[in-house]
Amino acid sequence: MAYTRLGDTGLEVSKLCLGCMNFGSGQPWMVNDRDRSLDILDRAMDLGINFLDTANVYSQGESEEIVGEAIASRRRDELAVATKVRWGMREGPNASGLSRKHVIDQAYASLDRLGVDYIDLYQIHRWDESVPLEETLSALSHLVDEGVVRYVGASTMTAWRLTKALYAADAWGHERFVSMQPEYNAVDRHEEANVLPACAGEGIGVVPWSPLAGGFLTGKYERDVEPPEGSRAADDEYTERRFTEENWAVLDAVRAIAEERDATPAQVSLAWLLAKDVVDAPIVGAKRIDHLEEHVGALPLSLSDADLARIEAPKTPRWPARGKD
Question: What pTM was estimated for this model as a whole?
Answer without folding.
Answer: 0.94
